[in-house]
Every structure is written in structure tokens, then in C-alpha cells.
Amino acid sequence: MRQPRLFKKRTSKPIPPGVEIITYRGRRCARWSARGKTYTVPLNKKRTRIVYESENWWIRFEDAAGERQEVPGYVDKTSSEALMVELVRKAERGQAGIGDPLEADRKRPLADHIADFEMHLASKDNTPDHVALTVQRVRSVVDGIGASVIGDITAGRVSEHLAELRRNGLPAKEASKRKRKPLSISSSNHYYRAVRSFCRWLVQDRRVERNPIAGLSALKAGKDLKRRRRPLTDEELAALVQAARASDKTFRGLSGEDRAVLYLLAANSGLRVSELASLTPVSFDFDSVPPMVRVLGAYTKNSEQAELPLRADLAAMLRDWIGNSRSGKPLWPGTWAKKASAKMIRMDLEAAGVPYQDAAGRYADAHSLRHTFLSNLARAGVHPKTAQTLARHSTIGLTMNVYTHTVIGDLAAAVENLPPVALALEDAETQAATGTDDGQAPVRAQYARKADSRGRKEEGRGKPWQPSAASGVGTGGSPNLLPQAEMSKARQSLTGPVLE
């Protein structure tokens, strides 16, 4: 086998008229100016033509069949040398009868790989809806970047396509409405995670050496949060349940009583809509201490089975409602959980006279019942780490988002109970004038003058108070390791009994 080599291709052209022949760096060259630029190009040995070199390096080597090949490299010489080593290695493996195990997969259409990925997801006991949605998102991105083989998938192309979705939304054939709407950061991240899962599977299944989108990460959600939710107050939850019970309307197979029980369970367990829709009579164990509800991993967000304690009064109500049935059929069947839960609860909220959207623009949809659960835990003084376990949040930060809003709201209400500021100012001025100051009148009068100055700087102004760092809240560890007894105790601390 001949030694491979790097070289630059040369082409020659006739010497342009009117050029100056000079000696440059020991070589005879032609120099001329055109369009504001000066060109200096070497001559051939006979000094009859000018010689151009290619910008890129080229690689000359022998392939597995012993035939000489020339392929373009890169502008950078070091990168071209690395490519040459890779080409030679493949040629030597071919000559030794060892084929490239990844070559066939590189040439296969991406549609075939995606079909295999779909079968892989289904084999892991994922729900059909999860499999279909994940594969649909992968196909959407692959089509969006115009990829036909694995090599067409790059981090740059995927990133640019996701940015385009955030600007202009999905194509008309995929959007649920005719008008295209830009995707939020959260929705864009769902598409990214689907493609990331597909690319990781390609590596794990040894169809590609490296993850094509390695280095690409999800964007920080929350900056463009388009739908903010609010927890329901005790009064609003009571009104919602009572309105549902009194309703004679059936929503996608659910009667008013069915919906009332559903709302109560959601607000007292924190279960998500898809998890509630999966529950059957055998999901409950009313005889255990404490009573428990179990959700199969196929329906949870983290794909792990969830076991949650129930309040004693809630368990008693559910036992009576379910009766002696031990079937495996869903307690709340139908299609209400498929993008219709918000419409269902909105119907009952309107009947109860509870606003679906408050003055701050926050919504009270079905997921708000999960917020209600967490807010009630916060008000009951349950430790955030315990609440994280009950909510099955992957990080303590998700739990603290709800806790912080709830606690700040309660603190604001508490501060409003302090004596009015005007009373203190009036008292200071009165005592300063009469001399009945107990030695403190000058100090009080000073604060009264400062308040009257409306923000003007004076001597003696103290530094702003800085709160101390919060303690006692960890950030690591699994949210599923607390004892059942402690979780049960936390559940029982929720405010108020289950509504009758």
C-alpha cells in the first residue's frame, strides 16, 4: 500500500495581460490589481502561466481495493491529517476483510431507524400515547431539518429548527389550528428531548459512534411562560365540588358526581390528569395503614410506579363511591383527559361562579388542582423535602416555586396586620412636641422627618435589611425515599377535611 499524503491541488491559467513580473519570496510571480485588490500569484517553471493552489487540502490514499483515491479535506491541515488517518484505517480494515459495522446503518434511511425506535419504545411498556407523541416529534424535527440519513442530523441544524418553531410555530399540517402559533420554550424543549432520546438510542444500539446532537441542551423554561396557574382557595374548591355534584350535565362520559370525586382526589393527592385517568378500583388499597393509591409507571411522568398515602376521610369517601367493584376498568373513562380537562373544569367553575382566569392572568385549570395540593402543604407547614416526595418532583426547585409564592402571599397578609404606619408617625410628632418622650422622642421624630422627606438622603440612615440564607432544604437525593409514615403525616396536615 502506498503511503497516503496531503497535498493541495494546482491549476494553471494564462498570464493576464498587463501584469508585472516580480520576484516574491524567491519565486517569480505575477502581480496585478483588480477591483481594489492586489493579487500576487506564482508562475510555473516555464514562466508561461500562473499557478493557483486549492484552498482546501486534499488526501491521496489507496482504498480497500488497492485503487488510488483523492478526496477533499479541510482548510485546516491538522483536521485534514485526522481525516486521512480515519480513511486509511477504514481501507486497512477492508483489506483485512473487516467491514465497517456502522457503514450499513449510516446509509439506511432515517425512516427505517425511526420505525425501529418506535418498536423500542413500545417494548418498554410505555403508553401508546407516549410512544406516538415521541415519534411524531422526532419525525417533525427530522423533516424540518431535511435529514434523510443519520449523518444529516447535527446539533446546529436541530437548534436552528427549534428556534424557527419558537418564532413561527409548527407547519400548518401539524398545527391543531390553521393559524400557526409560535412554540413556547417549554414546548420546544419537548421536541428537543424527543430527538435527544432518539439520538441516545442510536448510540446505545450501536448504529452510530457518537451522539449527533451532543452538546445541545434544553433551554431554561419560565422566561416565556404563557400559561400561569393558580391554586384554588378552600372556598373555591368547595364551590367547584358542590357545583359539579349539582350538575345534570355529562362531560365525555363523566357525570357531575364523577367529576366532583375526581376534583377532590386531585386536590388532595396531587395526581396529574393522565395519572387520574389511569386509576381503576384495584389502584386503591383502603385496608392498608395508611390507605394508599398506586399509579403504574407507564402513566407517571418519571416512568416509576407511584405509591401515595391518602387522608383517612378521603379514603372513606372513595371506598363508598367505588363500592365493591374490583375491576380493572378506569374509574373515570372517556377522552376527557386528552386535552379536554381544562374545558371540563371550566364548565364547572362557571357554574360555581369561580373565575377561570383571575385579574393577574392566572388560570384555574385541571393542573391547578395539583398546585392547590402543594399550596395547602405549604400553608400547613410541611417541610419542602416531604412535599417534594409527595409531589414526585425531580428537583427541590420545582417544589420551592410553589412554596415561595404561597409563603410570600401569607407573609404579605401577616404584615398587613401590623399597626398602621401613620399612627406611629402621628405618635412620634405628638410626643416630640409635648416632651413626653421617655428619652425616645428625638429618635421617633427623626423617623417622622425621614418619612416626610419622601426618600431624600439624610445622615443616620441605616443600611437595607438583608434576609439570611434559607436553611434546611436539600437539593440532592431521591424524592422517593421518605418513610410512608412521614408522608402520611404530611398528608393529614392539609387544611380542612374532605368536603361533604
UniProtKB/TrEMBL annotation:
Residues 449-462 have a biased composition (Basic and acidic residues). This is Tyr recombinase domain-containing protein. Residues 227-416 form the Tyr recombinase domain. The keyword DNA-binding applies. Residues 108-203 form the Core-binding (CB) domain. Keywords: DNA recombination, DNA-binding. Pfam families: Phage_integrase. Residues 430-500 are annotated as: Disordered. The keyword Hydrolase does not apply. GO terms for molecular function: DNA binding. CDD domains: DNA_BRE_C. InterPro entries: CB, DNA_brk_join_enz, Integrase-like_cat_sf, Integrase_catalytic, Integrase_recombinase_N, Tyrosine_recombinase_XerCD. GO terms for biological process: DNA integration; DNA recombination. Residues 490-500 have a biased composition (Polar residues).
